[in-house]
Amino acid sequence: MIQLTNITKSFGTLQVLKGIDLHINKGEVVSIVGPSGAGKTTLLQIMGTLDTPDTGTVIVDGIEITKLKDKKLAQFRNLRLGFVFQFHQLLPEFTALENICIPALIAGKNKKQAEARAMELLNFLGLAERAKHKPAELSGGEKQRVAVARALINNPAIILADEPSGSLDTKNKAELHQLFFDLRDKFGQTFVIVTHDEELSQLTDRTIHIKDGIIQYDNAQPAANNEQLSADNAQQPTDYGQQPADLSQQAEKNSATGQEESIESPA
Ligand code: ADP
Ligand code: MG
User: Fold this and answer.
1) CATH for 2-255, among 3.40.1350.10, 3.40.50.300, 3.40.710.10, 3.40.190.10?
2) Pick from 257, 226, 264: which is nearest to 73 by CA?
């Protein structure tokens, strides 16, 4: 699902990533941990096409993203990646429903289709009655769940999260973490999560420790399991539907209609 090979990255004279090789399988929930300044966010941003490495290649969902440019890159990011940040980054003037719809509208889906899918997600997350609320009227936990719904709306291959529970209290934190595992167990959703949270990193399938720009430790799954997951990947190199059929059918229909020219950068 994600293959990083020899990733290096410097900011000026500071070499932040010093040769990262990493393979992440479909359906894995992976945490990236390490001291502040270790390069975790930089690595996640490179996986997410938000930054580019100085050397190395990044293959995500069968596409070498380090070769994509401008419009194709923005399109890939919009359709195949979902992002969750520490601070929800919802737009304050829009309702929960409208915020969730934004990536779908950027992808060229019509408002009705986007809203129907957003409502399905809100229902799934137990937030249907909050659809018309603006972020200021939602609790911290609700805002993060809306942010997860926004990340899910285009059926991404991977959700990338940077300290997603970093600003939540204990109860909301536990609920958000449970949601990640529910999405993985039910729909095979892949997650890469940068976190300081010990509890979360212990729950994840795999924890990658980064220090001084290199991977110090990676408790990867048993090889047999990896092979099975790799085989699953090989069978579905262009699997655009990792969400449940009822949620993904519409999006698949839409992606089949070819919206390429209308897709703009979400930035
Ligand atoms: P982490 O997420 O592990 O705390 P980061 O990846 O955010 O670490 O940052 C790693 C190092 O790179 C830090 O020393 C940080 O100050 C530096 N850094 C990150 N982004 C930039 C940037 N855009 N320009 C200059 N330095 C940066
Ligand atoms: Mg960081």
Assistant:
1) 3.40.50.300
2) 264
Q: How far apart are CA 37 and CA 256, in angstroms?
A: 42
Q: What predicted TM-score, i.e. pTM, was given to this entire model?
A: 0.83
Task: Give me the residues paired with residue 18 across strands.
Answer: 8
Q: Where are the domains of the chain?
A: 2-255
Phi/psi zone of residue 89: left (φ > 0), alpha (ψ -120 to 50 degrees), beta? left
For the chain, give the percent of residues with pLDDT over 90. Answer: 77
| Whether the CB of 16 sits within 6 Å of ligand 1 | yes
Ligand nearest to the CA of 17: 1
* Ligand lying closest to the C-alpha of residue 18: 1
Contact 40 CB / ligand 1 (< 6 Å): yes
Q: Name the residue at shortest CA distance from atom 11 of ligand 1.
A: 37
pLDDT in tens, 234-257: 443 333 333 433 444 434 444 444
